[in-house]
Amino acid sequence: MTRLPFIKARLLSPPPNTIGSILWISVALATSTAIQWLLISQREAQAPFFIYEVAVLLTATLVGTKQAAVVALASMLLANYLFTEPRFVLFFGPSDTIPALIYLVACVIIIIFASTLRRTVRALERSREHEAELNSRLSTIMRVTPAITVVVRSPDLRVVYVSPFLSKILGVSSEELQDIPFDSFEAAVRVFYPDGRPLERDERLVVRAARGETIVEHEGELLAGPDGELVPLLCNADPIRDEHGKVIGGALACFDVRSLKTLEAELRGAYRELAHRVKNHLQIMSGLIAIDARDPAITAAELADRNQFRLETLAKIYDTMVKSEVGAKVRALEFIDTLCQPYRSPAVAIQVSVEPGDVLISTEQASHLGMLVNEAVCNSYKHAFPNGVGTVWVSLKRVGRDQMELEIADDGIGLPAASSKSRSHGLLVMRDQAEKLKASFEVTSRPTGGAAVRARMPAELQASPSI
Fold this sequence. Notes:
The chain is α+β, with helices and mostly antiparallel strands. About 50% of the residues lie in helices and about 20% in strands. It has three domains: about 5-140, no CATH class; about 145-255, Beta-Lactamase (2-Layer Sandwich), CATH 3.30.450.20; about 260-465, Heat Shock Protein 90 (2-Layer Sandwich). It has helices at about 5-10, 20-40, 50-60, 65-80, 95-145, 165-170, 175, 180-190, 205-210, 260-295, 300-325, 330-340, 365-385, 425-435, and strands spanning about 150-155, 160, 190, 215-225, 230-240, 245-255, 330, 350-355, 360, 390-400, 405-410, 440-445, 450-460, 460-465.
């Protein structure tokens, strides 16, 4: 059919319009009559309908059944009148009527055959177009899907399709891996067990699928890349069956899970880091509780109250870490402001400032700095304002190129004489946290009234990226 494009085009094309039909019928009848006249004049054999049968067949095949019916009727009359004895008489008797009827029956058979042929060709063409569309869609899906896909034919295991993703990993073209014996494919695509042993042919998933086995979410095979890297794969394989259920091939789909393995390693690392930080924070709480326990002046209610605030501080540290958009760093301004929020009231104002305002601190710094800020603000809130009214300032600013200074100040009653050297409970806690920050620590009275706590620490800080 593909070698006769004109015939194929006519079989697939709709019938011509009225003028075209008339022209075709006229040409077909005139040509057939001329040929038949020539044949009759050159020999005595009587075959008045043969040429017309050919004309009916061509018309039914290339033009349409209606036009063929017209040619059949008209040619029957012409053949009966011109070429059937007695000539130039229509249907003189049984001798010329019966052949005409037989001719009509033959024409009906010819028209039915041609009509069936046209329908079959059109159905095949629609099926071919549909198949081409499906193949185009499948090819597009395979081209954009980041998966290794291999299809082999049974029983010879010839490789009939390889997705571009495998070609990309191996650094070769898909054409080099397609339509080749499995021996060649096996040599080009090397697969190993996790312990480095090469995978034998019968153990390959696509071969097992071509033999009727279904494999789902199989993990544990490594694909050898061109640079020697072993790529971990997660694979599915399934047999391809015909409409009768017979296995005619096997299909393999594998996903490159290197990114998942990397993410898994990162999550494991993050989990270990989180466990380490939780352990450190629990040790901090244990140390603070031990300090509290050595102070006979602290009642059980005060002990519970202090540690409630400390646990809330740890909770805020973890909450800030979870909400942070920049990984393991915490925004200092938001973090300190959140710590101070429970102490704010209409009577006690707490003002927080950080310079520069986009400073980030590590979670390790945040835990100790948070405890220090919480202890200092709590002391001011409870002891600096006998009348219940006052202001607390909390500031974190850069000093020089490599240091940061934390200051918590209030406008309360100030410190008693020599209080800055006291080993009171609150000072012990704050000094302990300052030591963990590798910071200097001092408590002084403000010239304008009130007290101030200062801690100067290494500037292990980082400005947040611009957003």
